[in-house]
Amino acid sequence: MSGHANWFELPADDTARARAFYAGVFGWETSLMGEDYHVITNGAAGAIAPKDAGHTQPRIYFHTTDIEASVRKVAELGGKHDEVLTVPDTGRIAHCADDQGTPFSLYEPQS
């Protein structure tokens, strides 16, 4: 099914502090993936990631079965999208914004 939310990322200046906070609030545990990217292992499907200039607010990913068609539709409807990126052993993603500038991302799982 396309369009359902299937991943999120919470950006943090200090990922250790953020992990401690969310562990206290929700009991979340995480597993390190990469240098400082922490996948939640016992809760919602998402991760705690380092904050940077392009990632200052929570990011939600919506599932698509055809990311190329989805980014074309984003553009047709007045939105914007970045380049489609391949994430090894995971799938493909594209960071987008709707026609009012609200950010979201698309995710096409690896087949």
* CATH-scheme architecture of the largest domain: Roll
Secondary-structure element pattern, one letter each: EHEEEEHEEEE
Q: Could you tell me the radius of gyration in angstroms?
A: 15 Å
Low-pLDDT runs of 5+ residues are none
Q: What characteristic shape results from the CA principal axes?
A: globular
Instruction: Please tally the helical runs, counting DSSP H or I stretches of 4 or more residues.
Output: 2
Helix content: 10-25%
Task: Quote the beta fraction.
Answer: 35-45%
CATH class of the largest domain: Alpha Beta
**How many DSSP-defined strands?**
9
Structural class: alpha+beta
CATH superfamily of the largest domain, called what?
Answer: 2,3-Dihydroxybiphenyl 1,2-Dioxygenase, domain 1
Please report the distance between the alpha carbons of the first and last residues. Answer: 14 Å
Oligomer: single chain
Major sheet description: 9 strands, mixed
Explain what the structure shows:
With 111 residues, the protein is of the alpha+beta class. It has two domains: 8-52, 2,3-Dihydroxybiphenyl 1,2-Dioxygenase, domain 1 (Roll); 64-111, 2,3-Dihydroxybiphenyl 1,2-Dioxygenase, domain 1 (Roll). It has two helices and nine strands; from the N terminus they run βαββββαββββ. The chain has helices spanning 15-26, 67-76; strands at 5-12, 30-32, 38-40, 46-50, 59-63, 80-81, 85-87, 91-97, 103-109. Strands 1, 2, 3, 4, 5, 6, 7, 8 and 9 form a nine-stranded mixed beta sheet that branches. It is globular, with a radius of gyration of 15 Å. The relative contact order is 0.20. The mean pLDDT is 94.
